[in-house]
Amino acid sequence: xxxxxxxxxxxxxxxxxxxxxxxxxxxxxxxxxxxxxxxxxxxxxxxxxxxxxxxxxxxxxxxxxxxxxxxxxxxxxxxxxxxxxxxxxxxxxxxxxxxxxxxxxxxxxxxxxxxxxxxxxxxxxxxxxxxxxxxxxxxxxxxxxxxxxxxxxxxxxxxxxxxxxxxxxxxxxxxxxxxxxxxxxxxxxxxxxxxxxxxxxxxxxxxxxxxxxxxxxxxxxxxxxxxxxxxxxxxxxxxxxxxxxxxxxxxxxxxxxxxxxxxxxxxxxxxxxxxxxxxxxxxxxxxxxxxxxxxxxxxxxxxxxxxxxxxxxxxxxxxxxxxxxxxxxxxxxxxxxxxxxxxxxxxxxxxxxxxxxxxxxxxxxxxxxxxxx
Amino acid sequence: xxxxxxxxxxxxxxxxxxxxxxxxxxxxxxxxxxxxxxxxxxxxxxxxxxxxxxxxxxxxxxxxxxxxxxxxxxxxxxxxxxxxxxxxxxxxxxxxxxxxxxxxxxxxxxxxxxxxxxxxxxxxxxxxxxxxxxxxxxxxxxxxxxxxxxxxxxxxxxxxxxxxxxxxxxxxxxxxxxxxxxxxxxxxxxxxxxxxxxxxxxxxxxxxxxxxxxxxxxxxxxxxxxxxxxxxxxxxxxxxxxxxxxxxxxxxxxxxxxxxxxxxxxxxxxxxxxxxxxxxxxxxxxxxxxxxxxxxxxxxxxxxxxxxxxxxxxx
Lengths: 373, 315
Fold this sequence. Notes:
The structure holds two protein chains of two kinds.
Chain A: H1 2-24, H2 26-46, E1 54-60, H3 65-76, E2 80-85, H4 89-98, E3 103-107, H5 111-117, E4 124-127, H6 132-142, H7 153-159, H8 176-206, H9 209-213, H10 220-248, H11 258-282, H12 286-303, H13 315-323, H14 325-339, H15 347-367
Parallel strand pairs in A: 1-2, 1-3
Antiparallel strand pairs in A: 3-4
Helix pairs in contact in A: 1-10, 2-8, 2-10, 8-10, 8-11, 8-12, 8-14, 10-11, 11-12, 11-14, 11-15, 14-15
Chain B: E1 5-16, E2 19-30, E3 34-38, H1 45-53, E4 60-65, E5 68-70, H2 74-77, E6 81-84, H3 96-106, H4 111-124, H5 140-152, E7 158-162, H6 170-185, E8 189-194, H7 197-202, E9 205-210, E10 213-218, H8 220-225, E11 230-236, H9 239-247, E12 252-258, E13 261-266, H10 273-283, E14 288-292, H11 297-314
Parallel strand pairs in B: 3-8, 3-9, 6-7, 7-8
Antiparallel strand pairs in B: 1-2, 1-4, 4-5, 9-10, 11-13, 11-14, 12-13
């Protein structure tokens, strides 16, 4: 009992000290609030998977009334903005190569004749296929309902009603922030917390504090827990800030329970922090710790389902992604915020985080020796 | 296990790759005394201290500190020792008081104990008016006093001080040593490493280290009395010429100029060394007076480290 009390008070002493460092280190302190604020506002607006306003050029070789109507209809979708006209297909291609436009519309000279036949392709879209998201948006144009304007009424009837009706659950207006802001909780926590703890122990080593600390009775697990404790609170503060911004700036509602959300966040924060600690015990200098932290950032951001849909990735990438804490947290946070799921329903993604935390803190504790050799 | 010994080592060695940093060191350090490690940089002082604190694992040999086996019982030892690192290792962005508070909590002192100890230490180390100042903004001497205060906060039986005065002015050094003697009077054992002769001379016992080995060991006064060389002082008008002559004599171990005199160490087995050296100088046509002198600690140091070098070049 006595030992436990002493142990707890040593953890508290380290946590308090860590808070003092943070309070006095203005840059890091600023990052605590600044990064979520800046990134949520920036990405909430900037990341938009709903593509609009692609710059387009038109090479209208027919020059007829219905050709102009087609261009107008295409523009009315807001997917493209016609910014320029080209005299020939070659000229249009040159603009595409130069990057002045992302989409080129070619209306052939025999446009009217093709329209009359109805079963032949009437016009051509030239797309910069280097960007899959632009390509996908352009594909949408191909199915433009305006095309039916030229088909005979009989043919339209024969085609019948569409096979499917699409209903977008949980985000009926298909707004990107609804998708992005919950995920930003995970991304921002990863970016800031892993970095904070990655340098936490390395910094003590670099400044020589560690040599003193390891000659004291402080135990390794106490040091580890004391080091991450303050950042759990900081993680909660950051998530709260992001959710408030999401709610009041981007109108992202929280469907699930806040208790579940904060509990899930706590587990993820612990996992992210121990990843940082592990890095801290591997790196010799703060610079190395930074580099190692960045090495873990990219796969997490690219593979977790934040940037690209998880199901679209090849199997090995998905297996790798399953190891990363962010992958699981994104499912948890999107599940709770968007679909109103409970933590119990999301257990499939909760236990991997708990496992990650246990393994990482064990490894970090084993890696860290109260020795200099 | 001997109660009167604070530290005992047998064949303590530490290698870093091919480098032998500490080479078969045997020590017997009594309690309630100041024991010094004297040696140049890289002689193995810090490595030995770190092994004794349990920070480094010995490659060979064994060490017993306060009756505990190191490194096996290093954790039990933590509460009984204080360690002042060579570089300042407290937190620069915390105040003097916050640093002491933090260590007090780490050593599980109660709030009342902490208050009392910190008040005493701030007073004793003249830091009371600096209590709220951040450690990074303290002067070298103040920082060193804070470090010693921190190392003695939990009233350890044994203090390790690794070159504690290397960045401090002479007045602060003198004050610092006064503090050490006060601690010894209360029963603390102190192991201090230094490369200053005057500091080494203040120690009760001394080990001279050179390239990882203990080359001489004993009380400074005894070491000076029993130096393995005759000490000569040479005065003359052309010291440079005299020096050239002496440097070529086989029996002369070393020559150093001290102001208007030369200071030479001559092998012990030379009979009447002053007469012999005087004759040698006369034969070379250099006019000089030669007299026997008392050995200083520096002479002891030079003679001791010289012996090792001879042994090596002969091998």
